[in-house]
Design goal:
The complex is a heterodimer of chains A (602) and B (298). Chain A has helices spanning 27-49, 106-110, 118-123, 132-145, 151-177, 184-187, 192-202, 211-223, 244-264, 266-272, 294-325, 427-436, 440-453, 463-486, 536-541, 552-556, 569-577, and strands at residues 10-12, 69-72, 82-89, 92-100, 281-282, 285-286, 338-340, 343-345, 354-356, 359-361, 367-368, 375-378, 415-418, 504-512, 515-524, 527-534. In chain A, strands 1-2-3-4 form a four-stranded antiparallel β-sheet. A three-stranded antiparallel β-sheet of chain A has the order 7-10-11, covered by helices on one side. In chain A, a hairpin with a 2-residue loop joins strand 14 and strand 15 (515-524). In chain A, helix 5 packs antiparallel against helix 9, helix 5 (151-177) runs antiparallel to helix 10 and helix 5 (151-177) runs parallel beside helix 11. Chain A is of the alpha+beta class. Chain B is an alpha/beta fold. Helix content of chain B is 35%, strand content 11%. In chain B, strands 2-1-3-7-9 form a five-stranded parallel β-sheet, with helices on both faces. In chain B, strands 4-8 form a two-stranded antiparallel sheet. Chain B has a two-stranded antiparallel sheet with strand order 5-6. Classes of the chains: A alpha+beta (602), B alpha/beta (298). Chains A and B meet through helix 1, helix 2, helix 5, helix 8 and helix 9 of A and helix 4, helix 5, strand 2, helix 6 and strand 5 of B.
């Protein structure tokens, strides 16, 4: 690879080198154009490497600029393929734009198929949020059929969803985001005895860990010269503030969490047959009737207890440690509007019985009831035809690429808005909405955290608040799951029979660990006529809307300090705090022409 | 490069006993008798860790998540002691151009020596324009990296045969590794289909190589016969059980090869038919089209 590759990030001196103008060309051409754009900013070798004949010949201008653009592509430690572009002024992010980089066309594939099969397809939207899109789909079809599933099925689904949250949030904290805050090289300088003392002081009940062995293990990896997944990290870096002992503590927990997460997914296997991609749902209920017995319930309980102990004595204290060590980040990465569909129905009555309530907070005000009619999807800055903002149930997906122009259209993600405003979905939304409604367990957890971390409630609106909310809801869900387990009735019904109508429509809402998920379905001739999704990372990572208001992540990044444009770990901190999951965020596409256009990058 | 520290190898917190247990499980999956466990142990413990470059294309990351669940000894032990996972977008600390540089240089430095794991299908329509990483098409990345490998492990149905994105009407021209790269590819490919596949079979392929210096015997669809040589039905404990056999509910176990009922998933906790759900045939080529509708008898 060329010398350009030696730069950690590409820095753009100029705005998009792509042709402006509004010529409508095929999606494929857009993708080539994106490449050309990358070429203009430093990946000339890659654009040229596309054998399809792009004409991207501009020699990259590298690096320098204090006031240039930073492009991170690929963003790693996420699900999916994300490109992030930021403009830096006076050492801070002034503007940000995000783009999803992969198209699979699953909605197109679903058309004409049996609605009953859809959940097995949609579950594969994402293997990280496994289960979530499967459940949303069966709820969607059940809504269209007008049926309610038996209590046993509802409880099994809550347990599977709860287990998904526990696993996903633990993996996100340790394996996807911790390395933004933890310096593994610093851990090699730690005193293991002092680390053990630190561990005891912040969490007396945590299981003892041989920190000397952890350190030896990390040292052996470094000494081997084969750094594997730790190669090329930004360490050392002045934005990393933990002591060597704190770094070793969290590095050791990174390893412990790898073991723990493999055990945690056994909860999915017990009632779901396997993980990832459980195989025990059906439209009308669940199939695991033989597993609803005393032995399996007790097996589930044992795993839950072990995971719960880890959350209480390791995960939560570590989240507090990060919050205390990085107080500046309780003032960065903020948004102001939050939305949750809610999750965990406790009876047949929804949304009234949802354990995590449904609601909306606008401008950090009181919680209001969600009105689905206030949700619209904007396309003014997306590569779709038209300017109108439409409701998801009547959504139109007509691809139209013009150019990769951040002043005009620049994303395949639509821009969902609530009452015309961008809203954040995910753990912070769920927790603040529940807090605002005086949810007893959430309120106690949040107040306890704020006291321990020395923060105010208003500081929850931040990167640290998002990380804390994720940990706090994990603890609350784990606490509730034991009582849900007790609601299972061995021998009870797990399935409500149904017959497929020739035509019907329905929707299914739920909460992925990353935020609100909505599926909309039209059944025609007993098959899938149309399937639409509005998913968490579209809400959070969508572009500007008709009124030029930035999306949640785009606005949250503004003001982020970047001390070293070559190593912008600060940008990754806030991006990772949203837990991007891009595979399901980008939809489409039925290309009008299967042809590559030549786009000149000049 | 510093010589692999053999003495440091077992100072790492996992005991010899745990590791031997793991090697025993792998030997079982490979159909070897128990005496091979110690031999696999020796194979894993010797020399520099083999480099593994893991490429993510048109996928859902479910196969990565599956391998993350490997246990006895576990994923950390796999990447600290057994292999050197030099490129993996979901887990790497680094980001942006740095990781692309790591990929290129690792492939060059270990040319002919590394295992290339491919997860996800390769979009081939429009010259590969439906999937991009670091400003390059996934197709061009595959064309550059895969031929330099010692062997390619196509993990999951998407990398093996195209999988979900290749389901009709296959809007992005998605294809598995062998189809996407065609005759120009001379490196051996092992397909490990499944949605996702069992991680024990993934580790088994690597163990087999370290142990015998060869890739496992493959069937006509490029799958290791040790894992896919028998039908699911022939190993299913419910095949003679009238109240639990799911054939009338659409089970594809008779026309799908895999070892799910014997190895099971997640520390042998369960498998789909134990959870009362029919087999969907997920380790067969084009199963999203050939095995649907899933709930009708084939």
């Amino acid at each position: 690879m060329s010398e350009q590759s030696e730069n950690i990030i590409r820095t753009e001196m100029e705005k998009s080198p792509l042709p402006k103008g509004r010529d409508i060309i095929a999606p494929a051409a857009m993708l080539v154009a994106l490449s050309a754009c990358g070429g203009g900013s430093g990946s000339g070798s890659s654009a040229a490497g596309a054998s399809s004949g792009t004409g991207a010949t501009t020699t990259p201008t590298l690096p320098t600029p204090a006031d240039g653009r930073i492009t991170i592509d690929p963003v790693t430690r996420i699900e999916g393929h994300l490109r992030l572009e930021t403009e830096i002024k006076n050492g801070q992010v002034a503007s940000a734009w995000s783009s999803g980089m992969l198209f699979r066309g699953i909605e197109t594939i679903l058309k004409g198929r049996n609605p009953e099969d859809a959940w097995l397809f949609t579950q594969r939207l994402c293997g990280v949020c496994t289960y979530v899109h499967g459940e949303a789909s069966v709820r969607c079809v059940e809504n269209a059929l007008g049926i309610t599933v038996p209590s046993n099925a509802r409880v099994v689904r809550n347990l599977l969803m709860g287990a998904q949250f526990l696993h996903d949030h633990i993996v996100h904290f340790y394996h996807l985001s911790a390395l933004d805050w933890v310096d593994i090289t610093s851990a090699l300088q730690a005193d293991p005895a002092a680390t053990a003392a630190l561990a005891t002081s912040i969490s007396p009940d945590a299981p003892a860990i041989d920190f000397a062995a952890s350190k030896t293990r990390l040292q052996a990896l470094v000494s081997s010269g084969q750094l594997g997944i730790f190669a090329g990290a930004y360490w050392p870096h002045e934005a990393y503030l933990l002591t060597p002992e704190e770094n070793l503590l969290l590095a050791a927990h990174y390893l412990e969490a790898l073991k723990l997460q493999a055990k945690a997914v056994r909860m999915h296997a017990i009632f779901g047959g396997k993980n990832p991609h459980v195989q025990s749902l059906r439209v009308g209920g669940v199939t695991c009737s033989y597993d609803i017995d005393a032995a399996r319930i007790s097996e589930f309980c044992a795993v839950l207890d072990e995971v719960r102990a880890f959350i209480d004595t390791v995960y939560l204290p570590d989240a507090v440690l990060v919050a205390q060590a990085y107080p500046e980040w309780a003032g960065l990465g903020a948004t102001s509007n939050l939305l949750a569909y809610g999750e965990f129905p406790q009876t047949e009555s929804e949304p009234a019985s949802l354990y995590f309530p449904q609601g909306v907070i606008m401008n950090r005000g009181p919680v209001a009831a969600l009105n689905p009619a206030d949700i619209h999807e904007h396309v003014r800055h997306s590569w779709y035809e038209g300017e109108a903002a439409l409701q998801p149930s009547s959504g139109v997906t007509a691809p139209m690429f013009t150019a990769h122009d951040t002043a005009d259209r620049y994303s395949w993600l639509k821009a969902p808005r609530y009452q015309g405003e961008p809203v954040e979905v995910g753990p912070l939304a769920r927790v603040m909405i529940a807090y605002g409604l005086n949810h007893p367990e959430i309120k106690a957890a949040v107040d306890g955290f704020l006291q321990e971390a020395g923060l105010e409630l208003s500081q929850m609106y931040s990167t640290i608040g998002r990380i804390a909310a994720r940990a706090l809801e994990t603890q609350v869900i784990a606490g509730a799951m034991g009582s849900w387990l007790n609601q299972l009735q061995p021998g009870g019904s797990v399935f409500q029979s149904w017959s497929m109508p020739a035509s019907a429509s329905g929707y299914g809402l739920n909460e992925a660990p990353r935020g609100a998920v909505g599926h909309w379905l039209q059944i025609q001739n007993g098959t899938i006529g149309n399937y639409q999704l509005v998913v968490p990372s579209t809400w959070n990572f969508g572009p500007r809307c008709s009124a030029d208001k930035p999306g949640p992540v785009e606005s949250a990044l503004v003001g982020t300090p970047v001390v070293d444009t070559q190593r912008p770990v600060e940008i990754l901190r806030t991006v990772h705090s949203f837990d991007p999951c891009i595979a399901c965020a980008v939809h489409v596409i039925d290309p009008k022409q299967d042809k590559v256009y030549t786009v000149r990058a000049a | 490069m510093i010589d692999h520290e053999k003495e440091g190898k077992r100072q790492d917190g996992i005991s010899r006993r745990q590791f031997l247990k793991f090697c025993g499980i792998v030997a079982g999956a490979l159909g070897l008798d128990a005496t091979f466990g110690p031999k696999i142990f020796e194979a894993f413990a010797a020399g520099p860790r083999p480099s593994v470059l893991w490429l993510h294309f048109a996928e859902c990351t479910g196969c990565t998540e599956a391998v993350l669940r490997t246990s006895s000894p576990g994923f950390a032990d796999l990447i600290f002691d057994t292999i050197s996972l030099d490129y993996h977008e979901t887990l790497m600390a680094a980001a942006g151009d740095t990781v692309e540089q790591i990929l290129a240089s690792a492939a060059e430095q270990n040319k002919g020596q590394f295992f290339c794991v491919v997860e996800g299908a390769i979009p081939t329509a429009a010259g590969g324009a439906y999937g991009w990483i670091g400003g390059r098409t996934m197709l061009s990345i595959a064309q550059e990296i895969c031929p330099k490998a010692k062997a390619i492990i196509a993990i999951g149905n998407c990398a093996s045969y195209g999988g979900l994105p290749a389901a009709a009407p296959n809007p992005t021209g998605a294809a598995g590794v062998e189809d996407a790269l065609g005759a120009a590819l001379t490196v051996p490919v092992v397909n490990l289909p499944g949605c996702p596949p069992n991680p024990v079979n993934f580790v088994g392929v690597i163990a087999n190589y370290l142990l015998q210096g060869t890739l496992p015997a493959l069937d006509a669809d490029g799958r290791p016969t040790f894992a896919y040589g028998k039908t699911v039905h022939s190993q299913c404990p419910f095949r003679e059980n009238e109240s639990r056999c799911l054939e009338d509910f659409g089970c594809k176990g008779k026309i799908c090869g895999n070892n799910c009922p014997t190895i099971k998933f997640n520390d042998a906790t369960s498998f789909p038919m134990q959870a009362g759900h029919p087999c969907i045939g997920c380790s067969e080529p084009n199963f999203w089209d050939t095995m649907t509708p899933f709930y009708q008898k084939p």
